[in-house]
Amino acid sequence: MKVVVLFSLLFLLGCELSITEADEQQRLPIVESITRPPLLITYEDMIKTTSELTLTFLASHTDQSALTKEAYQFQWPSYVYDSEGIAYKVESVATSSELSDESLNDYEMGITMKLSPPPVDLETNRLSIPFYMVPRLYEAGYPFSPSENASPLVVGDISLYNVAIDDSTIQFDMVDNHPDSSNRNLQYLFTRISDEQEVYPLFSRIDDSSSPVRVELEFAEPISPNDRFQIDRTTASLPEWRFTFVIAEGE
User: Rounded to two decimals, what is the model's pTM?
Assistant: First the structure.
């Protein structure tokens, strides 16, 4: 009889542990920052009242280039949901040059979101906030400079590897993460920016038979590491970048 009781207790304890582990696995991981260089957006704070929940985020350019409201076209949801499937209405989303009554730098921007009704419990539940944005700052093309000592050299959704200069020639491997890049061969225009004017290469050699795409550009004048270049997709519109914040109170 004692053996049966002991076995039953162990079985119930095992079930309880399994349920707890399953609940932990089903909980979404916390996501408090997203990045697509040079853009970085971080969740900053939440303020809860009896009528609404205010969430604040800080958007910034990590290279300290100017960040304007027009640089990115944000699309926020009408409702967001917690981990129990409860919906909360997005009453408003506003951008500002201030955050928590503090002035921001010209490469920063505050984002304030108001939800109602306020969630009752965000210590155990988690709030998912999906959104997407269109990077309007790349409408004229994706600028880069070989002087940026990074590998890969990331500009938005384009990554450059093995950037090398030889007199008047620059070559690199390019990975384009545009959604259409996997469905069809995209076409590009490569230029050099000199005195705010676009200079076209004398010769362009592009091998897109495999990934990454191998690019070699030859110009009339010698190239220096501080020169600026630009990549423009000629057969695709700007992409939609999709992200999801997952936040909880006290984490």
Answer: 0.83
